[in-house]
Write a structure and sequence with these properties.
CATH class of the largest domain: Mainly Beta
Distance between the termini: 17 Å
CATH superfamily of the largest domain: Aromatic compound dioxygenase
Number of domains: 2
CATH architecture of the largest domain: Sandwich
CATH topology of the largest domain: Protocatechuate 3,4-Dioxygenase, subunit A
Order of helices and strands: HHHEEEEEHEEEEEEE
Number of strands: 12
Mean pLDDT: 90
Structural class: alpha/beta
Largest sheet: 5 strands, mixed
Length: 256
């Protein structure tokens, strides 16, 4: 919310712009009464299915994230997604994984600095990812929250390193109204494999990003954002000792 204008003025400004945009689209497409009623019915079904937030995130979240990126230096933010849990445990060098899910070994490593290139000591990275079969702990299949999630602190040089297993592409909920609309639009419901990272340090703005895998399926046609953050967070393919190495550096801007 803009701090330069009173709350009511800002609400009026944004709401009228949205209304004008929708009216312009209805007019430009010569939408009929039957089509309009079908659309309203679709929105009601989406709300009843509990997918209104999902629908908005799929189509609009990336635009707001990009607006924020225009105002802030440092690493570009990306979608946080619906599966973040703030109270994940701190881990010592390795994120807990489940033995029944065979997955490619992976090491997530890098450095956290400020915009002047100075290392940020004791910065916190909150990392979460899907299982090797595309599920999220704390949400799906009764997988306990301590799996595939963990927080780490940076060392004296701002570096960090943690082991895990490589995630895979997965489909967003596709049996409800959101999936139905995507398919009707000729799209799909797949997200590319990715790792979520939320970095924070005292006196600096937080950064939430997703790191994608070079050569990964759906990198160029992510159902939630089209193209993975304009390619800036696609990590080059690299292996060491049989493990996929994800070199992920993050730059945090100082808070005003």
């Amino acid at each position: 919310m803009s701090q330069e204008k009173p709350w009511q003025e800002r609400v009026q400004e944004v709401a009228l712009a949205i209304i004008d945009g929708v009216r312009s689209a209805l007019d430009a497409q010569n939408v009929t009464m039957e089509e309009y009623r079908t659309g309203v019915g679709y929105l009601m079904k989406t709300a009843q299915a509990g997918e209104l937030g999902l629908l908005c995130d799929v189509f609009f979240n990336i635009t707001v994230v990009n607006n924020q990126n225009k105002l802030q230096e440092g690493t570009r933010s990306d979608l946080e997604g619906p599966y973040y849990l703030p109270d994940s445990p701190f881990v010592d060098g390795e994120i807990k994984t489940m033995e029944e899910f065979e997955g490619e070994p992976m090491v997530i490593q890098g450095q956290v600095t400020n915009t002047e290139g100075e290392p940020l000591v004791g910065a916190v990275l909150d990392i979460w990812q899907s299982t090797p079969n595309g599920k999220y702990s704390g949400y799906h299949d009764n997988i306990p929250q301590e799996y595939y999630r963990g927080k780490v602190r940076t060392n004296a040089d701002g570096s960090y390193s943690v082991k895990s297993t490589t995630p895979v592409p997965y489909e967003i909920p596709n049996q409800g109204p959101t999936g139905t609309l995507l398919k009707a639009m000729g799209s799909h419901t797949w997200r590319p494999a990715h790792i979520h990272l939320k970095a924070s340090a005292d006196g600096h703005h937080n950064v939430t990003m997703q790191a994608y895998f070079e050569g990964g399926d759906y990198n160029d046609n992510d159902c939630c954002s089209g193209k993975c953050n304009e390619g800036q967070n696609i990590i080059p393919r690299k292996y060491e000792d049989g493990a996929r190495i994800m070199d992920i550096d993050l730059v945090l801007a100082k808070a005003a």
